[in-house]
Design brief:
Layout lengths: L2 E5 L5 H14 L9 H13 L3 E6 L2 E9 L2 E7 L8 H12 L2 E7 L3 H9 L3 E6 L10 E7 L13
Antiparallel strand pairs: 1-2, 2-3, 3-4, 5-7, 6-7
Helix pairs in contact: 1-2
Length: about 160
Amino acid sequence: MSLLLRAARPTDAGTAGEILHGFAEETAWMPRLHSQVEAIAFCGTMIDRGWVTVAELEGRVAGFLARDGEEICGLYLARAARRRGIGARLLARAKAECPRLVLRSFEANASARRFYRREGFVEAGRRAGAENDENLPDIAYVWYKEAPSHDQRPGSV
């Protein structure tokens, strides 16, 4: 498996948007709020802001991680790229660049929740869903490179 992690280029917006939109389309519990064109535009905005790292597998974008500082805004993989360690590699790169990472995962996304726990993230809070566009309950997770001091414990996400 030839895997390359690199900063996303503007020309990656189409593939990243297709991956993002594809996840929503194939996920039964996910409301359909945005078109593929909107997903591509959204990914283009994140790429323009310098937030996106892509995973290129055999020369094709297979997934991406979007991060704004310490906040992981999204980690998505094409269906064929899942369960191959690619998400863990993208996450490892983010961990190498930040002493603390935070993210939110939908409560309904059991596989993502297992993945983040396996990667060392701990639950830091829950919300009922009124705060996100999808109106779905979500869970905040936090990861620290080093064990937090008493005043940095989860709950401050």
